[in-house]
UniProtKB/TrEMBL annotation:
Enzyme class: oxidoreductase
Family: Belongs to the aldehyde dehydrogenase family.
The protein's assembly and partners: Homotetramer.
EC assignment: 1.2.1.3
Alphabetically ordered keywords of this record: NAD, Oxidoreductase
Annotated active site: E261
Sequence ranges assigned to domain Aldehyde dehydrogenase in this UniProt record: 26-487
Organism for this UniProt entry: Siphonobacter aquaeclarae
Protein's name in the database: aldehyde dehydrogenase (NAD(+))
Amino acid sequence: MQTILSRLGIVSDNAGTSTGLSCWHSETKRLTSVSPVDGQPIASVTTTTPEDYERVVQTAEKAFRTWRNWPAPRRGEVVRQIGEALRARKTDLGTLVSYEMGKSLQEGLGEVQEMIDICDFAVGLSRQLYGLTIASERPAHRMMEQWHPLGIVGVISAFNFPVAVWSWNAMLAWVCGDVVIWKPSEKTPLSALACQYLAADVFKRNDVPEGVSSLITGTAEAGQWLSADPRVPLVSATGSTRMGKAVAQAVAGRLGKSILELGGNNAIIVSEHADLSLAIPGIVFGAAGTAGQRCTTTRRVIVHHSRYEELKSVLASAYAQLRVGNPLEEGVHVGPLIDEAAVSAYEAAVQQVRSAGGTFVVEPEVLRDYPSACYVRPCIAEAENHWPVVQQETFAPILYLIRYTALEEAIDLQNAVPQGLSSSIFTHHLREAELFLSAAGSDCGIANVNIGTSGAEIGGAFGGEKETGGGRESGSDAWKAYMRRQTNTVNYSTQLPLAQGIQFGV
Ligand code: NAD
C-alpha cells in the first residue's frame, strides 16, 4: 500500500505519516486513516485549523475572479485532462479506495470509472451551458437567459463513495466556472488527498490559478465552517439525514443554496409477473454489495404473496454463496463495514428486529475470526414495513422481506418511509410498470423497472425526495444548481415602452 500511496503522490515522512497538503495545514492535529480491511492504520494527515480555512477561502475567492473568465470549453479541456489522469491512475486509486473504505476492488475500480465518466460528461457540458431566448412582449426588444458561475462551491462528502461524489460535484462546478473547497469524510482522507494531488498536477500544467481546487480535512466541525460561511454560496452535502438537517439549517439561515444527498431506504417490488432470474441478482447485488453501505442499497423487498416462498428460498440459496472477506481478493463479494461503530449499529438493528417479532431467513452474524472487527454476514429478515427498525436506514447488509397482495398496496408500502431515494419494480406486465412510474407510483428520485435500486449511471440526475434531501447531482440538467440564472432584456428601439403596457408620462 505504501508504494501505491507514493505513486498517488502521498508521501510518507519518517514517522510513517502522510505530509498532507502542507501549504494549507498547520501541524496541529492529525487524522489517522485506519483500514477496515485489516484494522491497520494506513497513514495520517494533518487537519485544517480555522486559520488554514481562512486562507483557503481567501485563495479560492481570488481564484474565482480569474477562473470565471476562462471560456467554459477551456475549463472543459482541463477537466478532460483530469479524466485522462484518472484513467492512468485507475488501478492505484481504485485499490486505495477499496483498502481505505472496504468495498470490493471491483467496486473501487467502478467508482474511479464513474469519475472518468463524469469527466467525459462535463467536457461535453462545457460547450452546452445553454440559456434560452424568450419572446419579448415589447417591440424591438430581445429577452434571454444566461447562466453564470456562483463562486465557491463547498463539497461535504461521506465515507462510502470517498472519491466519486467529489467528482460529480467538482467536475460540473469547474466547467460551470466555480471553484471548489472539499471536506471529505474523516474516515477516508487519503483517497481525498490522492484526488487533490491528481487535480493539482493537471492544474499546474495548465496554469490554473491556485485555489480552484482546495481540500480541507477534519471532522464535522470543518463541514460546519463551510455551511455557516456566507462566502460559500452553494454547499453540496452528501451523508446522513442527521447531517443534512444540520447543514440545511445553517445554509438556509444565511439564505445560501444547498444540494442535499442524504440517506435512502430503498425497496424493490417483486410482482407476480417478475422474472426471478433478473430479480435475484438485482436484489443480492443491491442488498449485499458494498456490505449494504450504499445510499441506494436495497433494504426492503416487497414481494407478491404468490411468489413469496419461492423468492425467499432462492434468495437464501443465493446468500449462501456470498463470500465475505478481504475485499481486495478476487471472488470476494462482501468486504467489511467501515468501523466497529457500524458493526454495533448492525447488532442493534438485529436486536430490534428480534424484539419486534421478526425472524431471520438468513441469520446475522458478526464474524470474529477476521483480520479486523468490522466483518458481518449479510442477513435477511421477515419484517413489517411499519416497524421503527424498518423505517430507518441501517448502514449495513440487512434486508427486510415484506409481503403484499395488490400492487397499489405494494406502492403504498414502498412509499411509506421517510426517505425517497431509489426504488424499483421487477415485472413484465406493462400496466404494472407504468403505474409504478406514474404520478401515483414511486415517490423516489430514482424509479427503475427490471433493474435493482443501486448502480446508477452518471448520465441521469441523481438524488431523492423527502428526507433524502431533494438535491440532484451528476447528469441531465443538474449543472444548473451550480450556476446562477440571469434574465436579460435588451432594448434596440428608440422608444422606452414599459412592460404590461404601463404609461408613465414624464
Ligand atoms: P455522515 O453524515 O456521518 O458524514 C458525512 C459527512 O458530513 C462527513 O464529511 C462528516 O464529517 C460531515 N458532517 C457530519 N456532521 C456534519 C455537520 N453537522 N455539518 C457539516 N458537516 C457534517 O455520513 P457517513 O456515515 O459518512 O455516510 C453515510 C450516509 O451518507 C448514509 O446515510 C448514506 O445514505 C448517505 N449517502 C447518501 C448519498 C446520496 O447521494 N444520497 C450518497 C452517499 C452516502
